[in-house]
Amino acid sequence: MPLATAVAVLAVAWSTDSARPASAADVLGPTPVPADNPQTPEKIALGKMLFFDTRLSGDNTIACGTCHQPGKGMSDGVARNRGVNGELPRNSITVWNTAYMRVLHFDGNRASLEEQVDKSIPGFAMGQPFPALLEELSAIPEYKDRFARVFPEGITQVNIGKAIAAFERSLLTFNSPFDRYRAGDKHALSSEQKEGMDLFFSARTACSSCHVAPLFTDNAWHNLGVPQVGPKTVDNGRVDVTKNPADTGAFKTPMLRHIDQTGPYMHDGVFDTLEQVVAFYVSGGGNVPNKSPLMKPLNLTAREQKALVAFLRSLTDPDARVDLPRLP
Ligand code: HEC
Ligand code: HEC
Predict the structure, then answer these.
(1) Is the Cβ–Cβ distance between 303 and 260 less than 8 Å?
(2) What phi, psi does 104 have (nearest 5°)?
(3) Residue 169 in this model has a pLDDT that exceeds 80
(4) Residue 22: what pLDDT?
(5) How far does residue 94's CA lie from ligand 1's centre (Å)?
(6) For the chain, which residues make up each domain, given as ranges?
């Protein structure tokens, strides 16, 4: 048989790979996009440049991409990164699939991706007042042209937020081994990962009561009694936004996709490894008032704990990537 035919036959034989989800919508549902900020390729490209441009911080040393790095699961690999004003009190949250988050930040104090940018640039991490930034960007011909092509008003505070938010809404990940397994490729997970998956979705662990698939978050807040470390001696979390005492010590349930790339873990980065996180759950969480009733000591063998970690590592799409843009 001619070589080309042999290759074609082989390709068909191996095409259990039709069991790959074709789009984010297949797995996560339609991507939410606000009516007043539709996605266009030019806007996404502009937003990507801004996201990775250190000119967006007060001393031109820090970009969004400093704390949300492609090689680090769109997080940064440190417990608490430093902004232009010093160490932040919290761990950077991945921006993969951030379009699907109904709540943003560990305490939910940002209503939309546009508002998130609007408050972050002049805030603690980036320390760049907007009037100075508008002047800085307007002096760069390529930015002037690109803004003019995307927005009738050109470079404005609102349009910077819109462009970056549009780029963020393009950061979709939905093709992990777990997704391929769910789409029908029975070989996508190892037997250890399957054991971990069954535990994750079981009443024995209750993991999936809060980390609800397919996004692995319930877009809500819970108090696990996570030990507090870092520059903030007390972080009360959600209560600072709602003023409801029942929310004291509650933090947003993070998405677990790409979790093996986004450590350290928890709102303050207190745990370095997934093994430590699982051990924390096995112990029933911290000893605090107000703790979620779902947090109880778990009776898991060492082998089961290892399987749970192996399953968590199956939530990363090895093909999901973001190439750095060329900056003007
Ligand atoms: C110095 C580090 C740092 C920089 C710079 C930074 N971030 Fe973040 N980012 C964080 C931290 C820390 C959090 C969690 C904040 C919290 O919960 O209070 C976060 C949270 C977020 C979230 C919320 C994700 C979610 O699912 O809740 C988004 C979106 C985001 N950042 C986008 C951006 C954008 C856009 C920029 C640039 C304008 C930016 N970040 C700059 C560290 C940083
Ligand atoms: C009661 C709801 C709840 C249950 C049950 C739960 N989680 Fe969590 N999980 C959370 C919240 C909330 C956080 C963030 C806590 C914080 O930052 O203080 C979190 C954080 C994590 C993190 C770190 C995420 C990150 O980006 O830092 C991992 C990993 C994790 N959980 C895995 C699990 C596993 C595995 C189980 C089952 C053994 C489980 N969770 C059970 C709510 C829950």
Answers:
(1) no
(2) -120, 145
(3) yes
(4) 81
(5) 8
(6) 41-169, 177-315
Give dist(CA 249, CA 291) in Å, integer: 8
Residues 133 and 117: beta-carbon distance below 8 Å? no
For the entire predicted model, the pTM comes to 0.95
251 pairs with which residues across the strands? Answer: 222
Assign residue 79 a region: left if phi > 0, alpha if psi is -120 to 50, beta otherwise? Answer: alpha
Residue 297 has pLDDT above 70, yes or no: yes
Residue range 72-91: mean pLDDT, rounded: 97
Let me know if 1 is exposed, middle or buried by CB neighbors in 10 A (0-12, 13-18, 19+).
exposed
Query: Any residues with Cβ below 6 Å from ligand 2, and which?
Result: 106, 205-207, 209-211, 222, 224, 226, 251, 253-254, 256, 259, 262, 265-267, 274, 277-278, 281, 292, 294-295, 308, 312
**Residue 12 tokens, joined:** 């068909």
Of residues 322, 167, 319, 315, the one with CA closest to residue 255: 315
Q: What is residue 117's predicted lDDT score, i.e. its pLDDT?
A: 98
- How far apart are alpha carbons 183 and 23 in whole angstroms? 12
| CATH T-level assignment (fold) for domain 41-169 | Cytochrome Bc1 Complex; Chain D, domain 2 (1.10.760)
**Fold entry, domain 177-315:** Cytochrome Bc1 Complex; Chain D, domain 2 (1.10.760)
Question: What angle is formed at CA 45 by the lines to CA 170 and CA 103, rounded to 5 degrees?
Answer: 35
Average pLDDT score over residue span 268-288? 98
Minimal CA–CA distance to 90: which of 218, 225, 228, 219?
228
Mean pLDDT (the chain) is 94
- 218: left (phi > 0), else alpha (psi -120 to 50), else beta? alpha
Residue nearest to atom 41 of ligand 2 (CA): 207
Nearest one of 259, 305, 311, 258 to 278, comparing CA atoms: 305
Residue 21: its pLDDT value, please? 82
Mean pLDDT over 12-38 rounds to 80
What pLDDT score does 3 carry? 44
The answer on pLDDT for 37 being more than 90 is: yes
